[in-house]
Each structure stands twice: as C-alpha cells, then as structure tokens.
Amino acid sequence: MTTYLQQLDAAAPADRWKIARGFLFDEPLPFHAELRDKRPIYAMEEVTLATRFADCNLILRRPLTFGVDLYKPKQGSYFMAQDDTAQHWREKSIMKSILDVEDLPKIRDFVRNTTDQALDSARGSVDLVRHVTRGVPVKLVQDWFGFTRSNPEKLIDWSYWNQQDAFWNQPFDSVVDGLDQEGIIKNRERAGVMMAIYIGRLVLRRSAAVKLGSRRDDPVSRLLRLSFSDGVDFNLRDVVFNVGGLLIGAVETTSHGVCNALSHLTSDPALLKEARDVALGGRPEDFDGYVFEALRFNPAFPYFFRVCHRDTELSGGTPQAETVRKGTTVLAVTHSAMFDPTAFPDPEKFDPARDFSDTYTFGHGMHTCLGRHIAGVMLPEIVRQILRRSDLDFGSGPDFKGSAVPQEWHLTYAA
C-alpha cells in the first residue's frame, strides 16, 4: 500500500494540492501523522503545509513574518485584516473592553434558555442548523449585542457570505470542485451592502437615543458612548465596521463549531453516552471539556493561512528543516498540531480533562478569536442542552449541501 507522501510525490506538481486537500479533510489524522514524522514542512505550488506544533505556533505568533494579507481583499480596512498596526491594537482593545466577559454566567443562562426554547417550540423535530446552531447565536446578536429591529434570516445570510468569502474562498481554494468563487464574492458584496445599510440605520437610531440619555447597556451602545466621548480615535465609521464584525464572527463560526463537536460525539456510541451522562448529571462546567476535546478531533478550521513576508526556516534544528520563501502562502495545519505528541500527551486519547490552553479552537496569537470567552460558554452550552433531550436521533448527520459548512441537520427527539 502506498503512503500519502508516495501518492503525492507520484502526482504531477499541479495536482498535488488538490490531492493533499482531500487528505486534510477526508483522512486527516493518519495524513497529519505521516507529515509530522516524515515531512513536516510540505511545499506545493499553491501552498506550503506546516504540521508540527512548534511551527504552527511560530507562524501564528509572528505577524510581521507571516501576515494576513489574504484577508485584505475580503475585509478591506477592518482591523482583523491588519498585522501589528496602531489601528489593529486600538480597535481590538476597544472591542475586548465592550464585550460582556464579566457577564459570562448570564450569557450562559441566556444560551441555555434560548436553546431550550428553540427545541421546545420545534416539538420533537428540528433542523438543528437553522433553528439552533445558527438560531441561538443570532438571538444572542439581537438581544445581547443590541441588533434591534433585525431580521434573523438576513443576519444569518450576511454572516454566512462574509465567512464563506473570507475563510473558504481564497485563491488556493480554486481546486475545490464546483466552487463558484466569483459567485461567492458577489454574494459577499451584496451581503456587505445590505448589512451596512442595516447597521448604519441602527447606529443612527442608537446614537440619538444615547445622546438623549439612554442607558441601554449593550455593545452597540457602549461603542457609541466611547465614540462620542472623544477620548479615543474611534469615529462612527469605525463603530459601523466593528458592529458588523460582531455579527460576522458570532453566527457562522458558532454553528460550524457546534455541528463539528456533535458530529464527533455522535460518531462513537460509548462516547456519546458518557457525554450525555455528564450533560444530564454534572455541572455545566463539567461538560465543557467534552466539546473542546471533540473540536480538537474535529475542528471547524483545520488550518489557518498566512503569507510569508521574509525567508524563514521552519522545523529549525531538526533533520526536516526547510526554508519557506517570501511570498509563499503557508497553511499552519493546527488540526495536526493538536495531535503532536511533543505538545499533547497521549494525543489519540479523547480526554475531556485536558488543559485546552494550547489548542487552536479559537486561533492563536494576534488574530485569536475576539469573542473567545463568549464562544467558550456558548458552544458547549448549546451542545449540552441538545444532549439533555431524550430519544435523540441524529439521522445521517449534518448536510453540507456543497458548502464548506453545515447547512442542515435534521434531529428528532422526545417532545
């Protein structure tokens, strides 16, 4: 039987990335293990893969050497499309300060109640994606983040197309069969215009309320008070951009994460029973590790992409050291890194008691997920409430419908 590397090396150079991408998504763990052992830095025409923990950490923590250049055509002047700029640090700091980290217990209660209401109202049969994995974070955006007078279907649409274009429609994705790259760009542009119109009107309404003394306490209102204070360089245009970022980041990534965690937990009947027992009998925090460990096995993002700005040696000091040249698109294959035995003891074991500090569920380095603390309670609480239902039938699992993320998942349960 030929190895993965033998198959790749035997293929024409122009075909290797398509084959390797198939392995990354269809047979990830054995493929990763072979690369980590034999060729941890694997260069192809379109991308170079880095598969060891040390190299992934280096790539993601050095923004001046490995930059987010490929975000810029998708996200424009948004701070997350910048590396180590004054605007990036200022706006990230502002956004961190206005999110409700101190209110995580209340947010968890909100997610718990909203998930239960969604399942109760469905009366035993539900499309998990629309009504729960997308529906619950959309409700959080509306009720907690302050997106009043909004249509949930439109919020889902805007988040979906922005995420599709930014993360799943890069130049190196051209090898994906049937991917309509221009169509995705047009849908993202349409969604961006409609989202900007809605947020612009929201900001105008809320600005008037704030100036009239409204004490409404949500992220949109906090951003406006900060902008009006003139205490920091943060104008209304910046408010609009960053309010949009709250929506884009909250919905689709949560949905994908919940679906992936559930997919892994339901793939093993014994593991599913163990997780359900904890969901039913333990404290909420006792259950969280099951979701984060499931996402180590089945992450929403198996890699993060960067562009190399200067010739850089990876796997330095080892026989497999390789120099990555300036201009190369590098994929830090963090799914592989989370199974690197140098960083994760007994990596093949499902261990919900792990310390998850070194996992990449929320990224790493300068571009770590802005809302990681909120997501850190929302993701496991949605999964926990689903598993607390009885007579669960997960059917055939999530249906991606040709997309990079789940589009439907029909679940039945005792009403």
UniProtKB/TrEMBL annotation:
Top-level taxonomic group: Bacteria
GO MF terms, alphabetically ordered: heme binding; iron ion binding; monooxygenase activity; oxidoreductase activity, acting on paired donors, with incorporation or reduction of molecular oxygen
Cleaved signal peptide residues: none
Oxidoreductase found in the keyword field: yes
InterPro entries: Cyt_P450, Cyt_P450_CS
Keywords: Heme, Iron, Metal-binding, Monooxygenase, Oxidoreductase
Pfam families in alphabetical order: p450
Family: Belongs to the cytochrome P450 family.
Record-given protein name: Cytochrome P450
